[in-house]
Amino acid sequence: MFFLTPVLVAIVCILVVWIFKNADRSTEEKRGEAGARVEARPWVDEDLKDSTDLQQEEEEEDVDEWQESEESVEHIPFVHIRYPEKEMVKRSQEFFELLNKRRSVRFISNEQVPMEVIDNVIKTAVVKDPDMKHKIREIIEEEEEINYLKRMGHRWVADLKKLRTNWIKEYLDTAPVLILIFKQVHGFAANGKKKVHYYNEISVSIACGILLAALQNAGLVTVTTTPLNCGPRLRLLLGRPAHEKLLMLLPVGYPSKKATVPDLKRKPLDQIMVTA
């Protein structure tokens, strides 16, 4: 009969432990790879990072580069106009009717629009030079073709067919005005140190919503576009600093005479609001 010596028993135990550890490690690696495949989102623009990403970068950078927040900010009286209840109902209904007519219009006339209107709704510079608009179109169409053929995937491309849209963006040339909205992931204090802009993406997104309402109120149309993976090249083209990231591009103008939009219906109120 064969008997195991203490030394042999110890070796066998070590081998068993080693086998189990390697099996666990292999399982974890497979899970990690599977998780990476699930988390992989090729359509996500790497140029769009929110404050949460900034916080991680901040921890790795020299703390001396960042400006401490001001201890106090002066407060001033708030001026508010209070309307009678009937007037409030009337204004809210009129605003709803106005915004309910807003649609994404991809067929935009080349008719010029009053720049004073654009200045009033945005209070910033816009792109209206034909050559610059065409360069923007070339960059976007080049990247969009890759998006449609490789990055976005079959399901996304199939879902877009009903909107009759593809990587050809003729409206970038025909629209008299292009508004490119950049978010600043951080700013700079007077002493040159970096200043954190908290919630920069959601703040700029809210501003975009207000801008869309203002354009609709002025009688102009646009289509909200988010040029995927175009941000760095467009930023360089327009000479914008590295701490600005492209969030949205709006071609603005009058609708063309033969403009069409998808016949989509808005959700009823009971599907978008819950009251308790």
TrEMBL record:
Its cofactor is FMN. Coiled coil: none annotated. Keywords: Flavoprotein, FMN, Membrane, Oxidoreductase, Transmembrane, Transmembrane helix. It is an enzyme of class 1 (oxidoreductase). CDD domains: iodotyrosine_dehalogenase. Residues 30-52 have a biased composition (Basic and acidic residues). The chain crosses the membrane at residues 6-23. Residues 30-71 are annotated as: Disordered. Residues 55-71 have a biased composition (Acidic residues). One of its GO terms (molecular function) is FMN binding. The keyword Transmembrane helix applies. Catalyzes the dehalogenation of halotyrosines such as 3-bromo-L-tyrosine, 3-chloro-L-tyrosine, 3-iodo-L-tyrosine and 3,5-diiodo-L-tyrosine. During thyroid hormone biosynthesis, facilitates iodide salvage by catalysing the oxidative NADPH-dependent deiodination of the halogenated by-products of thyroid hormone production, monoiodotyrosine (L-MIT) and diiodotyrosine (L-DIT). The scavanged iodide can then reenter the hormone-producing pathways. Acts more efficiently on 3-iodo-L-tyrosine than 3,5-diiodo-L-tyrosine. This is Iodotyrosine deiodinase 1. It comes from Tupaia chinensis. The lineage of its organism: Eukaryota, Metazoa, Chordata, Craniata, Vertebrata.
